[in-house]
Structures are given as structure tokens and as C-alpha cells.
Amino acid sequence: MTTATVAGSVGRNERMEQFVYDDAVVRLFLLATLVWGLVGMLVGIVIALELANPVFNLGLPWISFGRLRPLHTNAVIFAFAGNAIFTGVYYSTQRLLKARMWSDGLSRLHFWGWQAIIVAAALTLPLGITQSKEYAELEWPIDIAIALVWVVFSVNVFGTIVRRRERHLYVAIWFYIATLVAIAVLHIFNNLVVVAGPFKSYSIYAGVQDAFMQWWYGHNAVAFFLTTPFLGMMYYFLPKAADRPIFSYRLSILHFWTLVFIYIWAGPHHLHYTALPAWASTLGMLFSVMLWMPSWGGMVNGLLTLRGAWHKVTEDPVLKFFVVAVTFYGMSTFEGPLLSIKGVNALSHYTDWTIAHVHAGALGWVGFMVFGMVYWLLPRLFQAELWSKRLAELHFWIATVGILLYIVAIYAAGLTQGLMWRAFDETGRLAYPDFIETTVRLLPMYWVRVVGGVLYIAGMVLCGVNALMTWRRGPARYAESVHEAPALRPLPAEAEPGGFKHAAWHRRWEGLPLTFSVWVAVAVVTASLFEIVPMFLIGSNVPTIQAVHPYTPLELAGRDVYVAEGCNNCHSQMIRPIRAETMRYGEYSKPGEFVYDHPFLWGSRRIGPDLARVGGKYPDLWHVRHMGDPRSTTPQSIMPAYPWLARTPIKWSAVERGVAAQATLGVPYTREEVTGAATLARAQGKRIAAAIAQQGGPAGLEETELVALVAYLQRLGTDIKKSSTTAAAAMGGEGTGR
Amino acid sequence: MKLADVVSAMHFNLFAQIALVIALAGFATVVVSVFLARNREPFRQASLMPLADDRPADPTGGRA
Known about the structure:
The structure holds two protein chains of two kinds.
Chain A: E1 16-19, H1 24-52, H2 65-97, H3 104-124, H4 140-162, H5 171-190, E2 193-197, E3 200-203, H6 207-225, H7 228-242, H8 249-263, H9 278-304, H10 310-315, H11 317-340, H12 342-348, H13 352-382, H14 389-421, H15 435-473, E4 483-486, H16 504-509, H17 513-537, H18 553-564, H19 579-585, H20 620-628, H21 630-633, H22 652-664, H23 671-675, H24 677-694, H25 705-715, H26 719-722, H27 724-730
Antiparallel strand pairs in A: 1-4, 2-3
Helix pairs in contact in A: 1-2, 1-3, 1-15, 2-3, 2-7, 2-13, 3-4, 4-5, 5-6, 5-7, 5-8, 5-17, 6-17, 7-11, 7-13, 8-9, 8-17, 9-11, 11-13, 11-14, 13-14, 13-15, 14-15, 18-22, 18-24, 18-25, 20-25, 24-25
Chain B: H1 3-9, H2 13-36, H3 41-47
């Protein structure tokens, strides 16, 4: 392969500059990727076991499913995938720009800052310190740290771009720029909160609007953290591994811009048939379907890069990982638009189908891209031959079988759930009225998932062994290759024959990083505003309901317990206007019911039943027994037991701070309710505890978190039941609900 | 009168649908522009960039 004609070829009289790349930081990020990948996936195995049999919760609060599930998702996304992104970005950016990273100090600060954030997440999430929003659970001090470290990373990358010796930015760099810009916007605006304590905050958005912001963030976290950086890595590492240029550079232009412009709109498809306005979810569906084309453009571009090199795939584990990764990318990006279609979503939403979809993307696309990159980098970074190619091959096959076992079982589980929930008998009644009937049916599939997960993690162990042994083979001191290139020349006014027909405008942008970045920001921000502005400023989106009142201080404390224990990881609070749901759970949920919900707690899956109208369904004592031992009320339940709630006292100062923070957000508490929050909560706690004792339950619960949780659960969905006629009359009144 | 009252009266959610049409038109423009390009050499050169980036410097400075 000749490289003599590459853009920027050097004239004889140009002064050459010599430089070395900073590979030490790449080595650090690569090792962190493997370590955190093992940790994150081990936690995944633990929670898979907990779902298969609740005995694995061990009765310990800090490893119960609700607390560990966010740790698993955060560890895999931000620790495993995050460190892999930084590995790929630091390695390829320096080489594509022909420049060492702008600042070694910032590189080290980025590395250690990110690892400190991961450790903080690993400590706080098991302690129940969470904002409850999926993939954005970390509390405000950690969110600030993430923002600062992201700024460090961005300054370092943009500084390197400024200092580059290569005029044109290769397509991989475009995807990195999109990641830097979009993640900053998403992280900041989804994490705007009012602080209610050192590790407690409430989202500034409520109900419908909070749900919208969360899934604007959540979907685009997938887009700009798990897709665009990995596409950048695909455009760099796949040609390197295949020793072939990318199939079509022009297709990559189309792939990039359509992806950046379209992805940002698609978030509302996570909220079909919920209380979100229909115009928003329809718009999300349309853009999601449109996403199929650019995504497949990227997949085709990746796979066709191997034209003439397919014979190498049989011999090279790196290419094997890349081929399967790109194939999973194609499958996931076909399935995503499919799931966004309302008719399909009515069946799939809240079921394990979504979990299977996510894992096909995470284990197949992200995981295999990482492993391909790791095996390609190991000999180059550690300056030694890969310890065992056969072990890498074994890793590939074990992990592939592991993914297939995992997703086939969970697709089957998801379809089973969806079909059983909506099944009617010949008399028109629900065929499976007890939710537990559907849960029990899934248990064999949950065990298959455990086996699949164990295989996948076994492959990771093999990768770790291979990395360790390759590292040991390397020299004690790594040689630093000296590279040279001419300094960056000013962009000529008419660099290339131009005009619209020759797409010279884009070639020019590729040499103007500021212009390029501004257009990326415009794409992200404009698209977001087209959805956000109407969502927040059109009163009819959230018709108010007069019967809906703020939570009492004790109910708010119970809501905080619900959040801390991660109940929203298994229970939704959103009844869709679908017959099977209204028959099972009651009246469908209205937007106005959530105007005081900072944050919203609609959930995204139903491992257990929906709780939107659980208030008043059971006596207080039922909840006490259910929390102490779920099998005592529902014999086959897989819910963890929460015995510690009956022993943990309510923190009255936190109750006062919580009510004050909610009042700051516009929740209409009176001054007396704010200043006397603890007193009011104590009084309500006494009443509930007395009722529990009267029903034959234990005495002395009045100041425990259990009573607060019971108060909250008994309130859920009851406002519109109290006065349905008043509520109906009040609906349709316009206002923001504040 | 609040901003929400003004925006509510504007039927602002129509703007999102207009944006959908604009996005489609923009997409078509980029497709036409990129795939009508007759001079493919710059694209070919750009596609070679990852393959040319990792060679250590020639100790003779390329003048041997």
C-alpha cells in the first residue's frame, strides 16, 4: 500500500518538525478499560443472578438489585466504554493530526480525574446515593467533576487540533468533535438540579418535561457516547487492521452529517403512549426511522472496507472482532428504528426486548469494537508480539456464543412478557391477571442469560490474561519513535476546484476545525431546541388537574427512599392508554398527575408491576410485610427483601431540606409546611404506624424509612381517584402546572 | 401575560414539523453535492490518511 500521495505531501524546501506521540496515556486508558470492563460485567453477572433467584441479594442493602443495576450500567458505559473511547481517541487523534497531545498534564489529569469519578460512582451508587435518572444517576458533586474532566479532555483535543501538522481533519476526528460537543450539552442540561444536601438534589424539571429531558439525554448518550466515538474508531482502526482505505469517503460525509442532525431528535420514542404529548413522540418516531439509513450507510462503509481482504478475516482475530461488531451495529440500528414504531413499541416497551436490544448493541457493537482495538493496540503499545493469538481467537468465539445465548434468551423473555401482559381470554378478561404469572415464566430464560454473561466475561478474562502477558513481554522502557512532518501551512484561498458540485465546501470545512465544530454544535442545539421549546412553553402539553396536590413531607421522604433503593429500576409509574394496561392497573396516567414529580419516576421496564395506582390497593400492613419479605405476600416473587427499612430512622433534617428544595422549584408548599416539615412528617408517621399496629403489624415503626415509603406508595395515583368528577372538570385548563 | 401564553397561542409545535421538512431538504442537498462530485481525487487522498500516519521518521530525512 503506497502512502506517497497522501494529502499534505511535503515539498522539498519545507522545514520538517520532529515529534513523538504520548502513548503512555494510551497504555493507561487501555489497562483501565480492561480492569473496569471486568468489574462492570461482574456486577452484571451478580444482578443477572439476583433476577434469576432473589436469594443472591443476600439481604444486604448495598448489593440489592435496585442499587447495583445503575452501578452495572454506569460501570459498563462510562468506565469500560468511556476508557476505551479515550484509548482510541488519544491514540488516533495524535496520529491523524501528526501532533503530540496538546498537554501531557491535561492528559494525566483527564486519566486520573476519570478514574476518581468511577471510584466515586462505585462508592455512592451502592449506598443509594442517586438522582434516579437512567445513565445519569450520579449525584451533583460527581456531575460537576464529570463536567470539569470533560472540559479538560475537550481542551486537550481541541488544543491538539490547533497544534496539528495535518491540514485536513479525517472523518474519525469529526466523530470525536461531535462527541465532545454533544456530550457536554447533554450532560449539563439533563443534570440541572436544586441541591438539597451534600449528596441529594432534585431535578429542576418535573414530570412530563423531566421525562422528555431524561430521554433526550438518555437516547443521545447512546448516540454520542456509545455510537459516534466508536464510529470514529471504526473509521480509523478498521482500515488500519485491514490495510485498506475506507470504502467510501463520500459516504462517510453523508454518514456523519445525517447521523449528527437526525440522532438528536429521536429521544421521545422512549416515551410512546406515555403522558408525553403525542406530537413529540411521533416526531421522535419519524426521526428514528430516518436514522436507519445513515446508520446502515456507516455499516456498509465499514463492511465494504474489507473488499478484497475477506481472506484476512479467517486468520486475524482483530478483523473478526471488527466484522462482528459492525454487523451488530447494523442489526442494532435496524432494530432501534423498528422498536421506535408506535405499534411495535406498544408490545416491546417495559419488556426485556429493550434489554436484549441494548445488550446486542453494547456487547456486540461496543464490546467487540473495544476488543478488536485492544488486540490491535497491544503489540504496538507494549512493543511486543501478542502473547497468544489462539487465546484471542478463543476469546472471540466464547464471547460470540455468550452474546447469542444472552440475547436469544432475553428476546424470548421480552416477547413472552409483552404477549402475556396483553393476552385476553375468550371472555375478554386478562388471561394472566396476576403479574407474577408472567415473571415466573421468564426464570429459565434468566438463567440462560447468566450462562451467556459468564461466557462473555470469561472471554474478557482471556483478553486480560493476553494483555498482561503481552505487557510482561515488552521492554522495561518503551522506545519512543520520532516522527516528522512539516508545520501546518495556511489554508489557500482556493485550495481545490470548488463549488457545490465538487463538494469542495466540505473539503474546506475539513481544514477549518472551528467552522466544523460550530456546525456540529448548531446541528445538536437547533434540533434540541425544536423539541425542547414547545415542550416547555406550550401549556396544553401538561393540562393541570386541580385534585393533584404536592406530596406531604413524609410522602416526599418516602419518595426519596424509593429513589435511593432504585425501585424505579423494576417498577414503572406510567399506565399507558392500552386496554391490557388499564384493565390490569387502572385509569391511564395523565400529564397533570406528575407536575410535582421532581424527578419523574416513570421507569423504563417492568420486572415488577406498574405502581402508578398502587395507592390504596393494599392495606399498610401488606406493604410492611411485602418489604420485609416479598415471598410472604407473593410466594414466587423475585423482589429483594428490604428488612433494613424497618430499622433505618428517617433523617428529619433531610426531610426539611427536601421540602425547602422542592418549594424552591415552585412546588406550592406553604411557609408553615416548609418550616414545620419534620413536625408534619412525624405526625403522619405516627398515624400510619398506629394503623399498622392496629392491623396486627409490628409496633414502633413511626420514625422509620419503612413508614415513609408506605406513606408514599399509598399516595400513588390516588389524587384523581379522590375526586374524579372534579378532576375531569379541571382537565383541559392550560398552564405549566407549576 | 407569560411567555408560555404567547408560545401556546403560536401553535409552536408546528415548527418541529417544519424542521422535519428542512432536515429532509438538507439531507437531499448534501447527498446531491457529495455524490455529484466529479473530482474524486481529494476524497481518495483523504481516505488514505489513517494508513499513512504511523511511520517513524526516516533517519536520513528522506534525502538518502
